[in-house]
Amino acid sequence: MQLTNINIPLLCIDRWSLSADQVWTVLGGNGSGKGTLARLLCGELDAMAGITDAPKRVHWLSLEKQQALYERELYNDDTDFTDQLDPGTCVQDLLLEVAAPWSSRHDNVVEQLQLAPLLARGYRLLSSGEGRKVMLARAVLEVPDLLLLDEPYEGLDVVATQMLEQALAALVAAGQWVIMLVNQKQDIPPWTTHLAWLDHGRLVLQGPYSELQQHPDFHAALRYTEVESLHLPVRQSAFQLPDWPADEPLVRLRGGRVAYGDLVQFDGVDWDLWPGCHTQISGPNGSGKSTLLNLITGDHPQCYANDLTVFGYRRGRGETIWDIKKHIGYVSGNLHRDYRVAGNALTAVVSGLTDSIGVYQATGEHERELATQWLAIVGLEHRANASFRSLSTGEQRLVLIARALIKQPPLLILDEPTQGLDDLNRFLVLAAVERILKTGPTTLLFVSHRTDEQPALLQQRLSFVPQVEGPSLYHLVQESLI
Ligand SMILES: Nc1ncnc2c1ncn2[C@@H]1O[C@H](COP(=O)(O)OP(=O)(O)OP(=O)(O)O)[C@@H](O)[C@H]1O
């Protein structure tokens, strides 16, 4: 079977047979062809030749599909016409969309994935992890012939990951045909019976998992970039904070509060972010991590209702959002979701200098050169002219990381930055971040659900902890990590 893009083979598989009684996991790094393989199995692409007896109803669960549902919801958004926030389709209706009427199966899935508090909530308002759980529930309810699970654990907190592991094990045991697509070995589920290793569009290893685990190639060491050998471009003085006093916080929040109607997400948060105090923000899915970060970047409407000072600007006193954003480099699932403009990879990186989604002014040679250097650091120099939207999800994420790092800003906000990245790219990104922190006055705010992903230089942790009783859903606990 061969699939080509003009003259470039995207996927070239000589022989691969699979049956419903085998549980395959396809392992492949970013750009290896997993997405193309999934599209092919779903019937979204035509192979040049060679597929026989393909399953008819295939459900592909992926970050791409999550994005597609979000875009559908945005398209139907009536906020501009009704003068109030249109929450879009509620979770309950999204579950009914794939299987109606409501039955005990719905009740089971809702219980398994703990979706009850979200049923009446609009999809667009969900946190990234909550959205992921809804996508999973839809996939399971559809009972497809084949369920393709593409990085199903991305964005889930520890509890949700365990819940999903159990739910998937039960599904497989009940006879659901499942193929997993993962980009790292530690995500291969224990119930895998067969493994296929995809590299540059080719299956380089395939067979029973127990046998392949003994194969020398399976254990080949990854060649990680040494942090010290990473060469970063010169820091851009235009975005720095000259002579910022060490005893003045970059961010000061007093009595911080966010509420939606009667639902108080958090309240009474007093927090100072001191220069150089690299901080991890942790908490379960939907606890308010991104909300807190969006208050700082000015992307949350309630930032003006709070006693919040960022870079010396008391919010709501006439500063522009650009005065604040100028000193921040930012990457998050929400940014990725909203980065929907035309333009190539290089322009997307340049847009980090103007803090815009897309570029709307002439860019100079210097900006383009700088962006090219950052694309090279994330290994995508050769994709500079490719349209951003045509890149794989992992490649898009790398471009957005380069966009966040290009300024080597005073405040770097990385909200689950490595979602969708393979081991090598994950390491590369964290190494580049560490190098930035070591070589200049950048302070890091970092969110990740992964326990194997903690930058060494973290000094403080802010944890959102559920309140069993009390006026708000979560309270914030601060602890020193040094
Ligand atoms: N306009 C809104 N109305 C009601 N609830 C909202 C609204 N906007 C956000 N929320 C809710 O606020 C909560 C916090 O969301 P946030 O994105 O900050 O979570 P998070 O901690 O970053 O989660 P994750 O780890 O899943 O990314 C979520 O439960 C979300 O559904």
Detailed description of the structure:
There is one protein chain. Residues 4-9 have low confidence and may be disordered. Strand 9 and strand 10 form a beta hairpin. Helices cover 31% and strands 21% of the residues. The protein folds into 2 domains: 2-219, Rossmann fold; 227-480, Rossmann fold (3-Layer(aba) Sandwich), CATH 3.40.50. It has 15 helices and 18 strands. The N and C termini lie far apart (55 Å). The strands form 4 sheets. It has a 6-stranded mixed sheet with strand order 4-5-6-3-7-8, sandwiched between helices. With 482 residues, the chain is of the alpha/beta class. Adenosine-5'-triphosphate binds at residues 121, 125-130, 260, 265, 283, 285-291.
Q: Which tags fit this structure?
A:
six-stranded mixed β-sheet; alpha/beta; ATP-binding; AAA+_ATPase; P-loop_NTPase; 21% strand; Rossmann fold; Molybdate ABC transporter ATP-binding protein ModF; single chain
Secondary structure blueprint with pairings:
Blueprint: E1 2-5, E2 8-12, E3 24-28, H1 34-42, E4 58-61, H2 63-75, H3 79-82, H4 91-98, H5 104-112, H6 128-142, E5 146-150, H7 158-173, E6 177-182, E7 194-199, E8 202-208, H8 209-212, E9 251-260, E10 263-273, E11 279-282, H9 289-297, E12 307-310, E13 313-314, H10 321-325, E14 328-331, H11 333-338, H12 345-354, H13 365-377, H14 393-405, E15 411-415, H15 423-439, E16 443-447, E17 460-466, E18 474-480
Helix pairs in contact: 4-6, 12-13, 12-14, 13-14
Bound molecules: adenosine-5'-triphosphate.
